[in-house]
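We modelled the chain as a single entity of 363 amino acids. Its sequence is:
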Amino acid sequence: MRAYFIRFFLLLKRQLNYRLMTIFLIAMPVCVYIISSVPQLNESEPVRIGMLAAGNDILAHQTMQHLIESSDSTTMEYYEASSADELNNDIISGRTDCGYIFPDNLSACISGGKYSGCIKLVSSPSSMMASLSSEMVFHSMFGIFGQSIAADYASSLAGTDSTASHIAKDYVNERFEYYLNGPATFHVEFRLLDVSGKTQSGTSVPHSAEYQADTQLFPLRGILAILITIAAMFGCSQYITDKESGVFLAMQGRMTILGRLVYTAIPTILFALSSLLSLMLSGSHSGLSEELSSITVFAAICILFAFALSLCIRKSRIMMSIIPLYAILCLVCCPVFIDLGSYLPPVSVLQKLLIPYYYISVL
């Protein structure tokens, strides 16, 4: 037994003598901690959209108020400019992507059918949100003005009967609100990934902060899973290299099997511990006990996978050439940045043959 421990200690010492590996093991959690600690790297600044009402038109002010209140702070932020000069200066300086100037007779223009060109769009040539923002402005304005148009039209059909006119107007207002904001028009289902990489579903838009917390960790988990797998394959390559050089000629039986396991286990365990520390320092994890159990099971799978490779592959050059190809295949096919299996059925089958997939999607 003492000989086993001595051999294990010597192999561990040899692994840590690889300076590049030691630097990488330390750099992983340090980089993750630095990135997660800098708010500017985690938060994207919203695109600012300016608005200005040239007069006291009720529709213009209601549209602006609705856009400001419904602004999504993670994508677009609407605000009211104090003057046209301020709006132009903000766009020229790049503080604002584009802006809208509403006329003082907006309601009359739309009611009279002369709405073409009544709202002035001010944007820079490099603006990328003007088209999308224009759709949102029209949607907001239609939600406000369209209801009154429909109610007035239904009321006019009742003629001089004031009771029927009032009933028709109330009914149209109720149904308009129902079809505009209710579930009758269409149904949207969001499928997100929680911090453990598992799929969760919902029927309403999640809070933006929760969405960022759920999706921020997913690429990190995928990259760490690939690194742990590559570490196990690297240990397998080291074993084959040492076997070719005659290191195991004096060993027989159980010592040879133990050496094969130790070679693959040491780098796998080291990278698993570094990955676990990286997950904990990232601030987005599902708890120490759950993460520890998941990464332990995955590390054991990687060790068995590398052990099987060492039985099948006898040349170190072949093993070293397989490692980068396998890493690229995992990055492309596994759901690290994008899940191609959701769009290409053959990829979903190939994913099942790649070890990192099970840590990302199953464990």
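As a brief sanity check on the tokenised model: The radius of gyration is 31 Å. The chain has 14 helices and six strands.
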